[in-house]
Amino acid sequence: MDMIRIIADDKIPYLKGVLEPFADITYLPGNQINRNAAMRSDALLIRTRTKCNSELLNSTPVKFIGTTTIGFDHIDTGYCEKNNIRWVNAPGCNSSSVQQYITAALLKISAESGFDLKDKAIGIVGVGNVGSKVQKLANTLGMKVILNDPPRERKEGKNGFVSLEYLLYESDIITLHVPLNMEGQDKTYHLFNSETFGRIKKGSWLINSSRGEVVETEALKKAIADNKLAGAVIDVWEKEPEIDISLMHMTFLATPHIAGYSVDGKANGTAMIVKNLCESFKIPLNDWYPPEIPVPLEPVLTIDCSGKDNVEILRKAVFHSYNIVEDDIRLRFDPSRFEKERENYPVRREFPFYTINLKDGNEEIERLLRDLGFKVGK
To answer: Which of 68, 156, 201, 369 is the most exposed place for a label (fewest CB within 10 A)?
Structure first.
């Protein structure tokens, strides 16, 4: 039997060397996975920059598409299903990474604004793999949690879900975790537009780490300029990688689509598509996972808790694991490096990789840290 032919995005982490014993594999930059490449491929392993539609796929031998991402709006799933092309994504692969990003953003917002997160209501729009992790985080931080997810509400009943209108009116901080749907009853394209911002609670905050096109750029800029919003944390942008520079300057934190970019999340995404590929083509590579994931320089942090409140201790631990401001500074320094910043993103490990040793800590801060996923020592 001939070896299967695979074209893979050359930026998929940990993949090189894994499939070579079983397949004829070629690595290309995502934007160079074109029709010519597809014509000599049985399977495509991609990221968001490769658009898999009829223009790319028509009359090609491609039978499998695997994207290492949660989102799959870059795949024409209808075309694939009609043409017997199996497609898979990696749902939930980086949900803990996004949870870490949101934790850092919330703690930075509260530090700069001088408020206690326990006094605030957070509205979570989209309560899937990622949104559910953010819900757990918000509960750990003692925030009031407001949930909006029409597909889940239709399936499960009211069950704590509210309308978007209610969420807009009641939330002090709104965080978006929806897929990009261009049409239909669950359309999310420009879900946040001038009308939405017109109904939002004055002085609230917006965090978008879902898809750039969920928020209409000009409407967001006006909402910030008119002080309708106190501020915005933006990780995803319309027309990436050509981002709106004036919006970047208006945001509280601006990052280059890296909320889910922990090495743990990347490893999970690659492992998930390799597993599905192997199932589809009967490749004998069971339960593969990257054997060596890079480690950060300081996996253990000791905090002297004397004279510090619990939030201060929490900030030290979270910012040690992930300093969101460094990502913001790098993007602002040179926005033209948007893609380079993603390709050369520094090693970021999630909370469970870190041990926090507490000197003179208390039971509550130990519980808080453990609930976030940290290991706690004395």
So the answer is: 156
